[in-house]
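Reading a protein record of the kind used here takes little practice once its layout is understood. The fold follows as a row of integers, each naming the local backbone shape at the matching residue. With these conventions in mind, the following record can be read line by line:

_____
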Amino acid sequence: MLRDSARRFVLEHYRIEQRRAVSKTELGFSLEHWRSMSDLGWLALAVPEELGGLGCSFVELALLLEEFGRGLVLEPYISSAVVCGHILDKCENAPARAATLSAMAEGRRRLALAHQESAQRYELMPVSVEAKREDEGFRLNGVKTLVLDAPSADHFIVSASVEGEEDFSLFLVDRAAAGVKLEAYPLIDDSRAADMALENVLVPRSAVLTGPARSRRVLEEALDRATLACAAEALGAMEAVLQLTADYLKIRVQFGQPLGKLQALQHRMAEMFVEVQEVRSILYCGISQLNADSAVRGPVISAAKLVTLEAGRIVGSQGVQLHGGIGMTEEYAMGHYYKKLLAFEKTYGDGDWHAERLARSRHFEQTLEPNVPAFP
């Protein structure tokens, strides 16, 4: 039922001409669509039942995001509902957890994670943004880069090093707070991001979501979930490319016959099909290990990223090639899927970073639980 409702939503609201129109608006997505997602319960999927959510697992999120990938949905669902939703659910600040998660589930609040910095290269540390203690709370100073979906967020979860502490804390910061400055820009897939400058931003003590003792673990969990969520989106995009290309080869006539009858092109389609099925398999494997310890979860998530990334390159480039010139036009969907798959490579860790993390995990096959088959 969830998959069917999401697919109907995409068919009704995300034809390519509709998406192009929405992408050119100031926000880069539709507030009406966001309200519809709230009404359908999608923003509350992973929110605990005691806070008015549905308390679903990541399986339901993956089903929804696969359909979002098919439609190249622009709404900031992963940033807000998946990443920030998980951080809030696991935070130590009970009042902030309850109020913010409820507001997010009802569509009244959109959040974005502000963690990445220019010197980090996807690592959790070091964090150069500083939080100095004051009588009124904390004073934040520093710069965050590539804050995904920041232009449309009304609150941010900001990582900052607290003086006297070895690790960072996570703070809930209002966009309207004095000293918060954003420099927004579009990304290649029509989503939006911004660089954030924090200049003497004063936040109360009640804005601390998670202290140094737990912040790193909670943030790592959230980023791994985000990586797998993007893989689910990429899977949906690749399935759409496969269907779009197959349909085109059936109707495009050349040399007196449909292109789909040429054996060489059938081989390419078969290769694309195999790549898509490999992504689905690695996504299932990642979901099975999502709640495991980081030593087990991390390598599996990185493997899922790498398999999906390579499949995206093959499926996306083959889709463009098999379409020919029309695949590069702005008016046709194929090029937009290709750009979506390109953007996936640099989101929540690029291929090199995930390959390094996978390589650092010694005896990767032995880290998996006995009921999960090892990779060749």
Summary: Residues 215-251 form the longest helix (37 residues). The domain at 2-110 is CATH 1.10.540.10 (Butyryl-Coa Dehydrogenase, subunit A; domain 1). The radius of gyration is 21 Å. The beta strands are 111-114, 130-134, 137-148, 155-162, 168-174, 180-186, 192-203, 208-210, 253-254, 257-258.
